[in-house]
Amino acid sequence: MSSEVRIPAESRTEFGKGFARRTRKAGKVPAVLYGHGEAPRHLALPARELQHAFKGEAGANVLLRLELADSAELALPRQIQRDPLRGDLTHVDLLLVRRGETVAVDVPLVIIGEIPAVKTGGLLDQQQTTLHVQADATAIPTQIDIDGSRFTEIGASLYAGEIALPEGVTLLTDPEAIVIHIVGAPTEAEFEAELAADTEANAPEAAPEVEAAPAEDEAAAEDAPAEG
Question: Class of 4-98 per CATH?
Fold first, then answer.
């Protein structure tokens, strides 16, 4: 289960791209805290501490205790923006939460141990890497484990509704959604047929034939008035 990470927070009253650049240059990240019908609060958070919090066991579901000058608030990250090249944090949206309330979150699925069917030639087709669940805001699971030893044969499947959840956690994902399916490895003939089909599907279409325009002298001759 997640634990609180204390983050010092400063209220901010300036906005705009120029202020955001100055904030980031000072080693801080612009953030907005919203929820519970309250007006959004604009904050500046220390980038290093925030980055460290997101790298912890809880990841993007980390519970933050924002230490403000006049109060302390609990919040969960809702949207994390990063620089596409450097990966630095550029902005964070935070959801205000209270102890005892539940929230909807995506929790990572982790396969534990070896999968017997894969060792005998099967292929793992994992169609869901997270489960959408509802959990206490202060007790969100860091991950949900799946026992790999249960997949003993090719063709074995696991549905979302079959996964054991921690106490107090409710499944929101469609219980009929396939999470894992063990498929057989394709034969050489099947592989070549699939490759040929992909090649044909991706082949560029032939350019339509265009009737050539008449040569200038021919066009002139056609436009000239007939003699006589």
Answer: mainly beta
